[in-house]
Design a protein that fits this description.
The chain is mostly helical. Helix content is 80%, strand content 0%. The termini are far apart.
Length: 191
């Protein structure tokens, strides 16, 4: 295992609840953080006895609920500006869409702001969002816990994931630089 993987695993074991809370809150507030993967990793580490899975469930669900509340209030308070721009969605989320929308890729980030934008009553939103948060966090922690993957296997996989992430980031930066270079050349040629 690489030094980086060992460091990341050590940090995760030392600060797991805080990492889960912060990452899940930011994920549900709209940042592109792989919350499901983190919860499955938490389940794997909990299976090895480093964490209490029920405490992890409470931490993750609470963080998801707080993140969703941020999104709800952004939609509620800034929604009138979007409505003036005629970009307000015609969709009005109901209770079921708040619970199950978090399982649809991309919908989790949009569901809370849309609920606020369309003036879903806050109490109704919180009740059904809390149900969705607990079910969502519980399922992904349980998948990691029940997967049979041991900590050693997860550490080995972390190296591969880290390498892939580095390649993807380098490719994205390279593509951006190439596109900027082409755009500059085109603008100079047009001038």
């Amino acid at each position: 295992m690489t030094v980086t993987a060992e460091l990341l695993m050590g940090l995760f074991i030392a600060y797991g609840y805080w990492i889960v809370f912060t990452a899940i809150l930011l994920d549900n507030a709209g940042l592109p953080i792989p919350g499901e993967v983190l919860l499955m990793a938490f389940g794997v580490v909990a299976k090895d006895g480093h964490f209490d899975p029920l405490m992890g469930l409470a931490v993750a669900a609470t963080a998801a609920l707080i993140g969703d509340n941020i999104g709800y209030w952004i939609g509620r308070l800034a929604g009138h500006r979007l409505a003036r721009l005629r970009t307000a969605p015609r969709f009005r989320p109901g209770q079921a869409s708040v619970v199950f929308g978090r399982f649809v890729v991309g919908a989790r980030v949009l569901m809370a702001p849309v609920a606020g934008l369309t003036r879903m009553p806050f109490r109704r939103f919180v009740v059904f969002d809390a149900i969705g948060c607990f079910v969502w966090a519980g399922i992904f922690i349980l998948i990691g816990y029940a997967s049979g993957v041991r900590l050693e296997a997860m550490q080995a996989g972390l190296h591969v994931v880290s390498l892939i992430a580095q390649i993807v980031i380098a490719a994205a930066i390279g593509a951006w630089l190439i596109s900027r270079f082409i755009a500059v050349r085109r603008s100079r040629a047009a001038a």
